[in-house]
């Protein structure tokens, strides 16, 4: 199947228009016309080889929404015309303990990413969603509630599920205090979900200008972190802190935010390891944990939750010729709060 895409032809080269061939639709696959694809900071990390050697040409994009245009002979989950979403992975081993528990993102054999990898046959290159069309096995795609605006849904497929999953795992409920570090694509979804789950939300941001937006999204408090001293009044105040920042941070100052037995969940992927002061963990039996996206059933649960609570991402819809500028603006923390590519312009 021929696809028009936006691709990086090498690390650090700009994103350009590029035609590729996708695999043909198999028995259990569906084909879709992509409507919108979100720009995740992980796309930038991978295009720029900040996470190690990558496969080029690379078509990034793992926040994909569109409409089903064709189905394979054995497909029962979708029909032509359905609104469909695809996230960060397109396959997994389906047999390990994690896969059987619906936690495909933690597949013991490794999940198959949506791009910058080979499919499970070991030879087909996986190309992502900065494109006009896509092919996906029905088991790894989700339904989109009819009441939600498609452009605002695209970021839910990565940014949304990545924050929803730890908020649910750590039992977010009314009465809890949740801190969100970084008000970018991921962080702003964390604010919306934590608020919808009834928690009191505090945003820790190094961009003072984001205060009004944070409050409008449901935060009660906004702490500007450009002076690290500003964290002090908030020490020992939080049941849960979600850390979406990938930049180098004074991590121990942020661990001080945790109450007794509370947890910081690390979600952003910093280039350098953190220097954790174990004394800060001992004092208060604090924990530091990680979390990565969410499984297929949980993605569907998250989208259904969004349908009920009318939650979508705050997006800036862009044309294909703006992607390189959008990358620069994202790196500069100047994103309000997710760039989404209108795929009809590719
Ligand atoms: P993003 O939109 O660029 O947001 C990151 C935010 O971090 C920025 O908006 C900024 O918020 C804050 N920040 C940036 N530089 C900072 C600095 N020098 N000091 C303090 N704060 C800084 O990125 P994203 O798409 O949300 O992704 C965030 C990270 O999560 C990336 O590393 C991405 O690869 C990773 N990720 C992880 C998963 C997972 O499954 N765990 C999934 C998707 C993405 P303020 O302006 O408010 O400070
Ligand atoms: Zn992502
Ligand atoms: Zn598995």
From TrEMBL:
- Keyword Cell division assigned: no
The record, for InterPro entries, names: ADH-like_C, ADH-like_N, ADH_Zn_CS, CAD-like, D-isomer_DH_CS1, ER, GroES-like_sf, NAD(P)-bd_dom_sf
Q: Which CDD domains match?
A: CAD1 (cd05283)
Give the GO molecular function terms: oxidoreductase activity, acting on the CH-OH group of donors, NAD or NADP as acceptor; zinc ion binding
Which UniProt key words apply to this protein? Metal-binding, Oxidoreductase, Zinc
**Cofactor(s), by name:** Zn(2+)
Q: Which residues form the Enoyl reductase (ER) domain?
A: 4-346
Record's keyword annotation contains Ribosomal protein: no
One Pfam family of this protein, by short name?
Answer: ADH_zinc_N
Q: PANTHER family, alphabetically?
A: ALDEHYDE REDUCTASE
* UniProt-recorded name of the protein: Unannotated protein
What is the organism lineage in this UniProt record?
Answer: unclassified sequences, metagenomes, ecological metagenomes
């Amino acid at each position: 199947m021929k696809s028009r895409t936006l691709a990086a032809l090498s690390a650090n080269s700009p994103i350009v228009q590029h035609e590729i061939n996708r695999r043909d639709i198999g028995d259990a696959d569906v084909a879709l016309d992509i409507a919108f694809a979100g720009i995740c900071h992980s796309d930038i990390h991978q295009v720029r080889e900040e996470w190690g050697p990558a496969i080029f040409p690379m078509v990034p994009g793992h926040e994909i929404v569109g409409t089903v245009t064709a189905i394979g002979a054995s497909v029962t989950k979708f029909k032509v015309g359905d609104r469909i979403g695809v996230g960060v992975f397109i396959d997994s081993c389906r047999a390990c303990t994690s896969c059987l528990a619906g936690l495909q993102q933690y597949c013991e054999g490794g999940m198959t990413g949506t791009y910058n990898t080979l499919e499970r046959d070991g030879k087909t290159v996986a190309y992502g969603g900065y494109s006009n069309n896509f092919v996906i096995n029905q088991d790894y795609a989700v339904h989109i509630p009819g009441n939600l605006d498609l452009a605002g849904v695209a970021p839910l497929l990565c940014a949304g599920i990545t924050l929803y999953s730890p908020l649910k795992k750590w039992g977010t409920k009314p009465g809890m205090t949740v801190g969100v570090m970084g008000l970018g694509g991921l962080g702003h979804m964390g604010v919306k979900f934590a608020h919808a789950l009834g928690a009191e939300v505090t945003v820790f941001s190094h961009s003072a200008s984001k205060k009004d937006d944070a409050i409008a999204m449901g935060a009660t408090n906004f702490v500007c972190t450009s002076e690290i001293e500003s964290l002090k009044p908030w020490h020992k105040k939080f049941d849960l802190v979600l850390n979406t920042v990938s930049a180098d941070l004074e991590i121990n100052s942020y661990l001080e935010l945790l109450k007794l037995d509370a947890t910081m969940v690390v979600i952003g992927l910093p280039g350098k390891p953190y220097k954790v002061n174990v004394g800060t963990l001992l004092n208060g039996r604090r924990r530091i944990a990680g979390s990565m996206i969410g499984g297929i059933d949980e993605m569907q649960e998250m989208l259904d939750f969004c349908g009920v609570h009318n939650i979508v991402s705050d997006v800036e819809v862009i044309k294909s010729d703006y992607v390189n500028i959008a990358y620069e603006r994202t790196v500069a923390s100047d994103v309000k709060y997710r760039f989404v590519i209108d795929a009809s312009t590719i």
